[in-house]
Specification:
Rossmann fold, 35% helix, 7 strands, alpha/beta, 7-stranded parallel sheet
Amino acid sequence: MNSPMPAVDPATVHPATVDPLAAGPQPRISSWPGRPLGTVLVTGGSSGLGAAVADAVALAGGTPVVLDLKAPDAGYGFVEVDLADSAAAEGAVARAADDAGGLDAVVTAAGIDRCGQLADVSTEEWERVVRVNLLGTAAVVRAATPHLERVHGTVVTVASTLGLRALPDASAYCASKFGVIGFTRAFAAETAGRIGVTLLIPGGMWTHFFDDRPDQYKPGSDAALNDPGETADAVLYALTRPAGSEVREMVVAASAETSWP
């Protein structure tokens, strides 16, 4: 596990350029007051929303630790894991917690998809989407629960607007994200008063999430997508609520998001 990234000088943070994908997720400096962040475990923290969350945590004085298939470019603490393997995911959480001396929060930002009609997507590919997005989320949260209960920590799970509104050619993704919503609401009910639980429902964002899709499923250059840095700032707000106050659910999307409401 690598050493956490040193504190970031806010003066070195630059605004987004014209091409948000070329610039990468743009970290924000949140003005939200609240409790210290401590050690925040971020799944999928090497790219996309996860990377933006890790950057936001570091900028706000916290210590991000990333679970992903590849190490984050920013040099944050890292444990390599394939979240499609629930046992491996639980083991990675245990290792990260041991190395960091505990956990204060978890953000489950890892996610994949496989577009196409149900009959055209192989069983292996379809089920991998569900394993990573839903079962991987549950495995990470399950393993982190004892650590979070000790400190009244926080979990932020990441669903999607497609966890509320189903679209064709997205059955695996919708199934997994509908499942994340149900899982999160149930987990919040069973840990109320012991762990803060926030359900994040983001709209589409300018990340490399869409890169591997066939052209017919890629958003156009004029698509109404959000800056992942803005979504990460909302996550930071949820993570810093004082004991006794929680953001239970939030939708964060571009102003012209087509999948919401």
